[in-house]
Design goal:
two-stranded antiparallel sheet, globular, single chain, 47 residues, mainly beta, 21% strand
Amino acid sequence: MLKQRNLAGDRSVLIHEILPAVPVGRYQAIWDAESGALRVPLEPTNV
């Protein structure tokens, strides 16, 4: 999981910089309580 905290304390995920082949778009996120992680399948959805 990649997180960056700005001066306001907000966190953002920087997926495009690490996975440039994944197209920019909307992705459905799913909270995985067992792992304590936000999972994002790398296939665009029509959200």
